[in-house]
Predict the 3D structure of the following.
Amino acid sequence: MKTLHFASILTLVAMTAFGCSGDDDDAPVGDVGAAGQPGAAGEASVDGAGGAPTAAAFELIGNWIDNFDSPQIIDDTTWNSSTIIEYDNDANVVYAQYPADDEYSPNKFSKTVYTEPKDDSFYFCTIVFSADTLEDAKADTAVADDADPENAGCGAFSWSLATKQK
């Protein structure tokens, strides 16, 4: 668990130090437009009763290991220790809330974009850390560029690669 938290901290520090921004002509990955509005096709949110998504299941559910050898455990309501608040399988974006006991961003919201899963793997990039509200995370204009995720596009870094555990 400490390894998982350490990898999260490294990602947080990297993103905080270098930020995520894109040029106006970049194709913003995870830019949620009309499809990201509640009730839109391909979009789902977790109901307030602590339960299941209200639409299609989140496509990243499973046990993964990232390229930092940290587990990425994703189910229909959590990604590691964060609670999934909303996701959009079509836009490849997930909004989550850190737990109250998180060392760096307690109760804050994040926005993570990801590439379409392929051959039991996907790339992901957290482009918003520590938003005060879900609305703030959604309104943030940070983007990531998935043109070369192995080498760049997530701030000044490559994207994280998650591979499904068998």
Summary: The mean pLDDT is 78. Residues 2-21+35-164 form one domain. Residues 2-18 form the longest helix (17 residues). The chain has two helices and nine strands.
